[in-house]
Amino acid sequence: MTYALPHVSQLKPYSSVASVQAMPDSNTTIKLDQNESPYPPSPLVREQMNKLLEQTVSRYPAADYGTLKSAIAKHHAVSPSQIVCGNGSSELITMIFHTFVGPGGTIAMPYPSFNFYETAAAAAQAKLMRMETRTDFSIDVDALLAAQASVIALINPNAPTGRLLALDEIERLTSRAAGLVVIDEAYIDFAGLAHSAIPLVERYSNLLVLRTFSKAYGLAGTRVGYGIGDPSIVAALHLTKTIYNISAVSESLAVAALADQAYTQQIAETIRRTRMQTETALRELRFDVVPSDTNFILCAPPTGDRFPDALALKNKLAEHGVAVRYFDAPRLQDKIRISIGTDEEMKTVMALIRQWYQ
Ligand SMILES: *Cc1c(COP(=O)(O)O)cnc(C)c1O
Questions:
Q1: Within a domain: residue 7?
Q2: Which of 11, 137, 186, 269 has the greatest count of CB atoms below 10 A from its CB?
Q3: In whole angstroms, what separates CA 190 from the centre of its chain?
């Protein structure tokens, strides 16, 4: 029946988008299920869109996306030889597993975490070892080291928990790991850039830090991510990447976004503030809220016959035009994950939630 290899036939499709009805009064939906930015990207991105030349789309881009690499290098004060770009950082995750792990290899990762890593590992015929986080979802560095995997990967701050691991713990992990350490910083703008592991790259040749334009920069549809690490790691990834993995359009928009740091940091700060207000409002309704350093909140609604459980809450919100995320997975079944929208959107959502939990 199938021409696919046996391990491919067993993969589960990546599903993220919830089906949600439009809001009864406005025919729109509030999308709080994929941690995207509710705000537009920098005005410089819009300007760049208007300036795109026909040539940009009719000719191949530079295979080494040198303009983008130079802009990223300048922004982080590193060398272009330390940078690799991907069609979103999720492509880099796949590339890393194919380049450094492969069939039969092992990856250690905290659990819970972004489940795309599990699919990417299975597609590379590698084994992802789930190392449990503590009861409060904090990451246990010693457990990750004890797994003796060829790659240790972690998301910092972690998704879908929102918890941040301190930089000295990342350094302890990197200095003691036998193999490659991958730190996925998709949400670091919301935690504060002082927590970034990028400065450690100069000292540890086994460290690769991933960033994306999909969250704070507001460019999820553009599909650009990058990794910063030792030139030897970067060179290996360039050997296995597809030829033109960054489109010329994406490259030019990402460069424009990078040029406006003030805008992105202001957006990140706005979202942080809204997140803190939402955390407080949820706690007042006796939700159990996991402390977050990101643009989302993982929380469990109060239990009792009077209250919808987490899955029922997700469904009730969907009926009212609001998409949030529910994970049918261990340690997460009593919780929902709410991405932070605009203040206006969060007001609407909290008004709905208040009706059911007051
Ligand atoms: C959103 C996200 C990414 C970024 O994915 P892109 O492919 O860059 O859109 C990477 N890692 C985690 C944990 C994420 O949540």
A1: no
A2: 186
A3: 12
Residues whose CB falls within 8 Å of the CB of residue 196, separated by 6 or more in sequence, listed in order? 167, 185, 188, 209
β-pairing, 225-229 vs 83-86, is: antiparallel
**Same domain for 23 and 49:** no
Query: What is the Å distance from ligand 1's center to 304 Cα?
Result: 35
- Say which residue, 72 or 13, is predicted with more confidence: 72
- Taking a C-beta distance cutoff of 8 angstroms, is the pair 208, 235 a contact? no
Tens digits of per-residue pLDDT, 104-160? 999 999 999 999 999 999 999 999 999 999 999 999 999 999 999 999 999 999 999
Assess contact for 239 and 100: CB atoms under 8 A: no
9, part of any domain: no
Total Cβ atoms within 10 A of residue 64 = 12
Structural domain count of the chain: 2
Range of the domain at 348: 14-41+262-357
Closest CA to 190 of 327, 80, 39: 39
pTM: 0.96
pLDDT tens per residue, range 152-177: 999 999 999 999 999 999 999 999 99
Query: Quick one: pLDDT at residue 18?
Result: 64
Q: Is 339 helix (H, G, I), strand (E, B) or coil?
A: strand
What residues line ligand 1, using a CB cutoff of 6 Å? Answer: 35, 88-90, 114, 155, 159, 184, 186, 212, 214-215, 220, 225
- Which domain CATH number covers 168? 3.40.640.10
Tell me the CA–centroid distance for residue 210 and ligand 1, in Å: 9
d(CA 242, CA 59): 17
The answer to whether the CB of 51 falls within 8 A of the CB of 248 is: no
- Using the mean position of ligand 1's atoms as its centre, give its distance from the Cα of residue 25 in Å: 33
